[in-house]
Amino acid sequence: MNRVKITVLKTTFDEELALEYGVEGFDKCPMLKAGQVFYADYAKPEGFCDEAWKAIYQYVFALAHGAKEGLFYFGDWIRKPGVAICSCNDGLRPVIFKLEATDEAAELDYIPVR
């Protein structure tokens, strides 16, 4: 298993929906900022949003386990092997991520129970 580089590409904000459904003072994501970089393998990186992790972990898992050799789905999504562009589930202020497979081996920080 290898590590996966997660880059926050941008934080977005749907002003129209936020005005209709958001609480007073609602704004862009307070947890993540464009340009932040995290590395993951089998677990959520320290300081990474729990909800965003739930939205992207399956792509991280696939890339960590060798999906970098091919394209996701039927080659009709991302043209570059080993890359996925994903977003969190927040419909009012989604954060967009770039996931990249690396050749850096993951290191377990626990002893697996057998």
Briefly say what this structure is.
This protein is of the alpha+beta class and 114 residues long. The chain has helices at residues 15-21, 50-64; strands at 2-11, 37-40, 83-87, 95-105. The longest helix is centred in the middle third of the chain and has 15 residues, at 50-64.
Q: What is the topology, as strand order, of the major beta sheet?
A: 2-1-4-3
* Residue-averaged pLDDT: 90
Q: Which spans have pLDDT < 50 for at least 5 consecutive residues?
A: none
Q: What kind of sheet is the major sheet?
A: 4 strands, antiparallel
Strand content: 25-35%
Q: Give the end-to-end Cα distance, rounded to a whole number of Å.
A: 18 Å
The rounded Rg comes to: 16 Å
Number of strands: 4
State the helix count.
2
The helix fraction, in percent, is 10-25%
Structural class: alpha+beta
Shape: globular
- In N-to-C order, the SSE pattern is EHEHEE
What do you see in this structure?
By secondary structure, the protein is an alpha+beta fold. It is built from two helices and four strands, in the order βαβαββ. It has helices spanning 15-21, 50-64, and strands at residues 2-11, 37-40, 83-87, 95-105. It has a four-stranded antiparallel β-sheet with strand order 2-1-4-3, with helices on one face. It is globular and about 50 Å long. The mean pLDDT is 90.
Please describe the structure with a list of short key phrases separated by commas or semicolons.
114 residues, 2 helices, globular, 26% strand, four-stranded antiparallel beta sheet
Secondary structure layout plus pairing:
Blueprint: E1 2-11, H1 15-21, E2 37-40, H2 50-64, E3 83-87, E4 95-105
Antiparallel strand pairs: 1-2, 1-4, 3-4
